[in-house]
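Hi R.,

Here are the chain sequences for the assembly we discussed:
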Amino acid sequence: MKEQQCIEARFEGGIGKLNLSVDFVAPSRGITGIFGPSGCGKTTVLRCIAGLHSARSGRFSIDGEIWQDEAVFLPAHQRSVGYVFQDTNLFDHMSVRANLTYGLRRAQPNPDREAIRLDEVVALLGISGLLERSPIRLSGGEKQRVAIGRALLSQPSLLLMDEPLAALDQRSKNEILPYLEQLRDRLSIPVLYISHDIVEIERLADQIVLMDAGHVVAQGTLAEIQSDPTLPIARMPEAGVALRAEVTGHDATYGLSTLSVDGVDILVPGNFGARGSKHRVRIAATDVSVALEPPKASSILNVIPSTISGFEALDPFQLILVLTLGPSASGVRVLARISRRSWDTLGLSKGQMVYAQIKSMALIASNAPP
Amino acid sequence: MIWTTVSLTLQLATLTTLILLLIGTPLAWWLARAKTWWREVVSAIVALPLVLPPTVLGFYLLIALGPSGPGGVLGSLWGVRSLAFSFEGLVIGSVIYSMPFVVQPLRNAFEAIGDRPLEAAATLRASPIDRFFTVAVPMARPGFVTATILGFAHTMGEFGVVLMIGGNIPGETQVLSIAIYDQVESMNWAMAHLLSAGMLVFSFAVILAMALLERRAKERIR
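And here is the predicted structure of the full complex:
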C-alpha cells in the first residue's frame, strides 16, 4: 500500500544534446520541487511526464496508475495532468473564461477527488474581474494566474509547474507566490514544481529532487537536502536551511518572539502572530557561527548547545559545518559557514559539542502548513 | 448571354474554392506538421502551377481528362465519355491550378501557430482532432481568409488552362477571361472594355480587402 501512494518516474534517453537518465520517487501529496541549474533537463522530465516527449525508455506511475512503461504509452491528452508553462501558453483567440473552461469541459470526473469548480478557482486566484477579457490584454502575473486556473480546472491528478514565475518581474512574483501557497494548502493535488531559484523552492516545496546534467543528484525532504554538506546546494553562497517554526511566546518589552523549531527555542525580533501560529523560517549558513563556550558577553540572542554532525571544505579557506541543535542527535540541523582558521584555532572535529550562535533568522512564509 | 458567363465564372470560382479549402486544409496541415523530408517534394508538386506555363498544365490535363485518361474513367461513372470540355473538367483543372494559392497561406498560418498552443491543448485533454478544430483552425483564421480570397480571385482570372481543357462553350465552359478574349477577337471593344473594367475593379477590391483584413488581424494581436 505504501508504494502505491507515490509518484514514480524513470526516464532514459538522449533528447537533443541532453543525455537524460532520471529516476525518482515523490510523495503524491504536497509540493515536490525539482531544482537544478538551467539546461539540466528539468523541463524535459516534466514534458516526459506529461507525455509531450517520449523518452527512449521510461516508466511513470502515480498512485499505482501506470501512464507509461515498456508496454504502455498514454498520449498526452489521456494523462490526467495540469501543466503550467513558463510562458503561460494561453489561447489568445479565446476569452479568459473560455480558456478556463477549455480543460474543464474535457475533464474526466475523478471519483477520488471532489471536483474543482470554476467559481472556486476564480476566487482562489482572484481573477473574477478578468473573465470576459482577452488574454492578450493581461499583465504577465495575471496571465500566469489564469494559466494556473486553467490547469487546475482540468481536474488533474498531478499538477506540473514549469518555472511559472521565471518569466515574471519581482512584483508579479510576489503577487503570485501567495496564491501558490494557498493552492498548496487548500487543494490536495500533488505538485511537481520546477525552479532554478532556491527562494521559490524553499518557500513552497516540502520535498526536493536535485538535478544536474540530466541526472538526479539527490532527493529527499527539503531539510535533509539542504543540510547535506556534500551536495552542491550547501555550497552555494546563499546556502541555508528552511525550517518549520511555531510561535510559543512574545516578549512585548523587548519586541521579541520565541519560535520553537522542532523543540529548540529561538528568539527573533518582531511579532509573528498569536501563540501557535506556524511559519517557515530560514537560517542562512553565513548567519551561524560556533563557539566552544557559551559567550559571557555577546549581543547574539541565540546560543544553542549543538553537535557538529558533519563538515565539508568549501575551498582551502572555508568550511561548511552541519550543526545538530539541542541535546538530541535527531534534532534540527542547520549549516554554518566558518573559516579554516577558526576551525584550526578552535580545534573543531566531527561529533564535538559546540555552541551555535544564530545571528538572525528570516521569515520566508507565514502560516505554513504543519 | 454575358450574365451566363459571369454566373458560370462565379460558380466555378466558388466551387473550386470550396473544394480547395476542403482538401487544401488537411494537406497544408500535413505540410506544416510532418517531419519527413519528402514533404518538401509534395510541397514542390503543389507549387508547380506557380511556375509552369498554363498551356503545359492544360495540355497534360487535357490528356488526363480525355477518354483514354483517368478523366474518361471517372466520367463513365455518370455516363460521359470525357471530362475535357465540360464544367466538371474545368473544376478539376482549376483546383489544381489554384491549389498553391490556397495551400501556401494555410501552411504558413499553421506553421506560425507552433507546437506550444497545441501542447497546451493536449495537456487539457483535447484529442488531436479536437485540438485541430478548437485551436489550430481558429488560430489560423487569417490564413483561411487569405487562402479563400486568393483561391477565388485566382480562379476567376485563369485563362490558359481553361482554354486548353474547356475551350469556349457558352453556358458550359466559357468564363469571363475567355469571353473578353472573344470580344476583342470579334472587335467588340465596348463589351471588352466593360468586362475588363469589371475584372479590374474586382481584383483591386480583392487586394484592398486582403490588406485591410491583415491590418485588422495585426491590430487584434496588439
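Chain B touches chain A through 22 residues (CB under 8 Å). DSSP finds eleven helices and no strands in chain B.

Let me know if anything looks off.

Best,
T.
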